[in-house]
Amino acid sequence: MVNKQRYNLLFIRQRQLVFEQIRSANLCGLVRKDVFEAFYKKDLAKRLLVGKSASVDAEKSMLSKLKQECGGHFTSKLEGMFKDMELSKDIMLAFKQHMTHVEAPGISELTVNILTMGYWPTYTPMEVNLPEA
Fold first, then answer.
1. In this protein, which residues make up the domain named Cullin family profile (predicted)?
2. Per-residue pLDDT tens for 20-63?
3. Is residue 124, in this structure, part of any structural domain at all?
């Protein structure tokens, strides 16, 4: 528990430092803010999907600071990512409650995220060869 608290404090401090760098660099006046947005969006997506964000509140705080500095157009897709995750959580909760009344082995471990295509970064498709049953 102490290590997690220490990690959370480190994460929050790191986000504060990133925001101060953004503010001092006047990100919204930069020509290459699209590059920053792409990297930030990719990293945020990874943290949200893998569940490795130390604090959703800290993530949302950073998002509100970016919105304040750069405007809503800059953060609208990032906000959509959070909405997708909240909606997915609600849907999965309802699904798991429904599944308590149905006998289906292995389904209890299923986790699904519903993602809006326009909000999330895209990746090059990978071909996967699955073993035959």
1. 30-133
2. 666 655 666 655 777 888 888 999 999 999 988 778 888 888 88
3. no
The angle at the Cα of 115, spanning 57 to 97, to the nearest 5 degrees, equals 80
Cβ atoms 48, 81 nearer than 8 A: yes
Nearest to 63 by CA among 40, 47, 85: 40
| Residue appearing with tokens 């157009």 | 73
Q: Look up residue 70 and give its amino acid.
A: C
**What does the block give as tokens for 20?**
């101060």
The whole-angstrom separation of Cα 40 and Cα 44 is: 6
What pLDDT is stored for residue 5 in this prediction? 62
Query: Is residue 112 in a domain?
Result: no
81, 44 in Cβ contact below 8 A? yes
Task: List the CATH number of the domain containing 47.
Answer: 1.20.1310.10
User: Which residue matches tokens 């964000």?
Assistant: 53
**What's the number of domains the chain is made of?**
1
For residue 76, is it within any domain?
yes
pLDDT tens digit sequence for 64-117: 888 888 889 989 999 999 999 999 999 999 988 888 888 776 666 788 999 999
> Tokens representing 76?
């609208």
